[in-house]
Amino acid sequence: MERVKGTSVTVIGAARSGIAVAELLNASGAHVFVSDKSSAAALTHAIAELQAAGIPFETDAHSERIFACDLMVISPGVPSDAPSVREAQQRGIRVCSELEVSSWFCSSPIVAITGSNGKTTTTTLIGRMLDDAAKKHVVAGNIGTAFAGVVLDLAPAHPAVLEVSSFQLDHIESFRPSIAVLLNITEDHMDRYDHSMEKYAASKARVFMNQTDADVLIFDEDDPWTRTVVSTARSRKVGFSAVNTVSEGAFVENGLLVTRLEGVRREIIPTSEIRIRGMHNLYNAMAATLTAQLLGVKAESIRATLTSFGGVEHRLEFVRELNGVEYVNDSKATNVDAVWYALQAFTKPIVVLLGGRDKGNDYSRLTELVRKHVRAVVAIGESADKVERSFADVSTVKQVSNMEEAVRTAQMLAQRGDVVLLSPACASFDWFNNYEHRGVVFKELVNKL
């Protein structure tokens, strides 16, 4: 608190993390001002919280007042190249993310999980493993509960398990997790990183940049980009692989998920008994298992969790079966790689709903999978034309104008024994508030069929 007491802080963005960090800083004696370009009508709940806390704010635009500060804290949704951020940096104002600022108040061990895909599932699974083992902790970050909102409730021995995004990592300075988990690095957010995988990978690698040899880095040894960037890490490296045996970490041997940590080998569970399906979830399970073991959870407890954990909402979430057709909500698949894994999770023919707000996607990686496994593509959202151009030569493609039409069209195209899969590969902001909203609407429409 002494670090921020008396300082002037501008918080850009009045979403969940912006409000939480504003309240944290305000309670710690900082002079806080919050600015959001959205209209007051769209920020009713946020405005009520700010008024209750006595924090001054503005809506509809960023005024000159935002630069009257010692520190600018930006929310994950604010691009690093936003004019307000660039101007602040040009004026010599320190710019940090909510993640960085919240970490200043944390005396507990931090577990930070990042990656292009699997963050939410892995973070949630680690939390469940700790719950099932009766080990106190909090789960926060990009998963929905802002770190700033819970950091003061943590006891020193209770870990903070955080899902962290590249946008949050872009503006850290001293953020240092005791355990960093780097799940994978595949093409995503190319619109935010100048269509450069090198820039995007460098952003993800920031999760371990402040670690020392006293810390642990858990990473995917099968992912080329991940394997490359961790070569610079100073921390203790613990890998996981589905295709090779690793010297320290997790691997598959004779159908078993096996771990080896500090020379101790443990057979955790037959992979066939892991409840969440798909190769991507095997990787998530290995990462979570290693993390839980390092946090003191016993193998027997981990095994029990893996057999009971059914996954997270909007990630290969079973909705219903109707007339022999299975409906699955994978709205959280917001990039091509996530869809690549989703299409391989089923042996049945698939009618897939693809599209939304494109992020510079290259759909060519999906061509052969669509040719082999997809009966039809329902093209949705702003990128419907691009989706149709990408797959018209390998599958039936039908464009639609809204989600209700998409669900009805998918029902018409599907045959008994098929899967109707919402797995968009795109952001949701053309038709929806976020991927959760998209998934909820899809489920509501499916349940009305």
pLDDT average, as an integer? 93
Number of strands: 20
Largest sheet: 9 strands, mixed
- Secondary structural class: alpha/beta
Shape: globular
Total count of helical runs of at least 4 residues:
16
Helix content: 25-40%
Estimate what percentage of residues fall within beta strands.
15-25%
Remind me, CATH topology of the largest domain?
A: UDP-N-acetylmuramoyl-L-alanine:D-glutamate ligase
State the CATH superfamily name of the largest domain.
Mur-like, catalytic domain
Q: Rg to the nearest angstrom?
A: 22 Å
Low-confidence stretches: none
What does this structure look like?
There is one protein chain. The protein is α/β, with parallel strands linked by helices and 449 residues long. The chain folds into 3 domains: 91 residues, Rossmann fold, CATH 3.40.50.720; 203 residues, 3-Layer(aba) Sandwich (UDP-N-acetylmuramoyl-L-alanine:D-glutamate ligase); 132 residues, Protein-Tyrosine Phosphatase, Chain A. 33% of the residues lie in helices and 22% in strands. It has 16 helices and 20 strands. The strands form 3 sheets. A 9-stranded mixed β-sheet has the order 7-8-6-9-10-11-12-13-14. Helix 5 crosses helix 10 and helix 5 packs across helix 11. The longest helix is centred in the middle third of the chain and has 16 residues. It is globular and about 65 Å long. The model has no long low-confidence stretch (mean pLDDT 93).
